[in-house]
């Protein structure tokens, strides 16, 4: 990442109320540089141009800070990123909160090789798992053990809820990172939220820099245990969503 890009990152993060340290900027720059190199061999992302990547990969990944509580920011909470892909939003969030105990999950092993490399290169420890959420959520040591689940552009909300809420302990919550128009999607998710133990969703809207567009953060608290049936076997949540 060029010096101009690093300045842009600082400024763009400032629109979210963040003041990045030099070390955090260096870590983001390293992740970006490695992403560009790896992307020549592994299809990690279509977004590699510096200006676009700064906003769409890093600043977009930072947006949950807008709704994190002081306790969530400061405590070593357990966080799981379902469908992490090339490590977004988890890696940028771990750059902000390296004391979090994070698990990054994806079903595409080649992308996770990059994630492991990027984390090691910037000196951040996290668990990286090559599995499907539908299988992982039924493991006793994973089920309802996390304070926070995060998913960015993973699936339609009813499907996303089935893939994430089983991981969250009662008292924790999901933050689903979505695009602009989510009202209809949230309405269609009411049955899934009720069945899976979630509370009423709260949507927070924000605008990204450079006219990139609006984003919506959907927060769903975990109020009661998810029935043991869910998530259903791989492919079923997508084929027969809870709507």
What order do the helices and strands come in, and which of them pair?
Blueprint (H helix, E strand, L loop, with lengths): L2 H12 L7 H18 L10 H13 L7 H5 L3 E5 L7 H7 L4 E6 L2 H14 L4 E4 L2 H4 L9 E7 L4 H8 L3 E11 L4 H6 L1 H7 L5 E7 L4 E9 L14 H4 L4
Q: Count the beta strands.
A: 7
By CATH, the superfamily comes out as Vaccinia Virus protein VP39
Report the CATH topology name: Rossmann fold
- What string, H for helix and E for strand, traces the elements in order? HHHHEHEHEHEHEHHEEH
Parts with pLDDT < 50 across at least 5 consecutive residues: none
**Spatial shape:** globular
What CATH architecture label applies?
3-Layer(aba) Sandwich
Task: List the strand order in the largest sheet.
Answer: 3-2-1-4-5-7-6
Rounded to the nearest angstrom, the radius of gyration is 17 Å
CATH class term: Alpha Beta
How helix-rich are the residues, as a percent range?
40-55%
Report the mean per-residue pLDDT as an integer: 95
Which structural category fits the helices and strands?
Answer: alpha/beta
- How many domain units? 1
Distance between the termini: 44 Å
Question: Approximately what portion of the residues adopt beta-strand conformation?
Answer: 15-25%
Labels describing this entry:
alpha/beta; 7-stranded mixed β-sheet
């Amino acid at each position: 990442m060029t010096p101009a890009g690093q300045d842009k990152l600082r400024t763009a993060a400032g629109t979210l109320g963040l003041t990045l340290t030099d070390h955090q900027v260096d870590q983001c720059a390293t992740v970006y540089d490695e992403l560009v190199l790896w992307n020549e061999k592994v299809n990690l992302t279509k977004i590699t141009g510096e200006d676009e990547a700064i906003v769409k990969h890093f600043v977009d990944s930072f947006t949950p800070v807008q709704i994190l509580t002081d306790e969530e920011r400061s405590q070593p909470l357990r966080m799981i990123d379902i469908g992490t892909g090339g490590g977004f939003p988890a890696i940028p969030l771990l750059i902000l909160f390296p004391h979090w105990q994070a698990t990054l999950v994806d079903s595409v092993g080649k992308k996770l090789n990059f994630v492991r490399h990027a984390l090691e290169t910037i000196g951040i420890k996290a668990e990286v798992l090559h599995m499907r959420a539908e299988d992982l959520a039924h493991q006793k040591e994973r089920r309802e053990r996390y304070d926070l689940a995060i998913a960015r552009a993973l699936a339609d909300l009813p499907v996303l809820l089935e893939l994430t809420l089983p991981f969250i302990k009662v008292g924790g919550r999901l933050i689903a990172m979505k695009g602009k128009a989510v009202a209809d999607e949230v309405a269609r998710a009411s049955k899934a939220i009720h069945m899976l133990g979630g509370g009423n969703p709260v949507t927070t809207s924000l605008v990204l820099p450079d006219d990139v567009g609006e984003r919506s953060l959907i927060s769903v608290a975990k109020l009661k245990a998810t029935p043991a049936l869910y998530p259903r076997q791989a492919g079923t949540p997508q084929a027969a969503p809870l709507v």
